[in-house]
């Protein structure tokens, strides 16, 4: 058998997809990853083949900087970072305005390259990042079955009554203005209509007999795989398409002697990371660091594109680097502070680590609400949370009440027994396999 993985040229997207592919690799199957050049080292680390297939104008090997992107992508990133400083609705409006360029990039050219890759590789199974719309329109138009991997809160695939880009849920610390939300929803509907028109134009260009869709954002493959814990989606009232929850896709990381020695030194610690993009928000990282110092909790902080000096005085027993092995550090962490990205949330939840979520954009708001509702942690607004409020939340998450602790421990045990790669492998290679856990 041969697995074809199609991923944007971003580490945060490729890492979970490549981890899913290890189930095929470890079974002795051939795995080909179609992606761009920036993430080629990650493909090599996993011991997989790579087929060159850029799906967009931007890329990110691990830590992103706007200065390292093409001119248009650099300007787009700077606009996004500025929007996060203005507020949540402003950020969502900006992201909606950028949607056609960041999610539907040259779909006819990309689509033809995807179909050529399928013809060349002749896979028996395909895994595709749900956000790779330019690839998915080609596969669906050609009637090619694939596993549709949704990375993020399940609302990344909208269901009845929802519009893409408008969070169906908000954490309690966010109180958006009703009129601003009405304007945002109207904008998201407009963008959805234009995005759908672009999807339909690409589909007809690829196959003149293609049937148009009414909502491109609601399109999905025959097999939907949510890279998300079922426990966080339970009880939110959303009617999902046929699917499986993968829980998480915890990867195996390369040895790091410095990190292992630091962990072995003993004592509770917090793991802090705002991911590849939002690590640029050094102002928020600095407040988090000050709050951690105030409660005397040691920390491992992945600063990303923020210079460590911006954090203020760094205690001698802290571990601070631009990039850290997240899975290894979460394995022993007392708590984590995160922007609410999919990898951070799922990898923490799958190892029983409570979360303090500081969401900035997209599905992070709905994801933060799910963490709160499940009792697995707390959420605060990153632009307005004071050092004292952060310190109070850190204490509360560190000393999580028993029901939340039990939920996390149970999820960790369940994922250790049957992890995301195994679920995906069984579902795509044995059609009669039980796709549980579902909800």
From TrEMBL:
Cross-referenced InterPro entries: Glycosyltransferase_28, UDP_glucos_trans
Listed Gene3D superfamilies: Glycogen Phosphorylase B
GO BP terms in the entry: antibiotic biosynthetic process
Record Pfam families: UDPGT (PF00201)
GO terms of molecular function: UDP-glycosyltransferase activity
Protein's UniProt name: Glycosyltransferase
Organism annotation: Serinibacter arcticus
Upper classification of the organism: Bacteria, Bacillati, Actinomycetota, Actinomycetes, Micrococcales
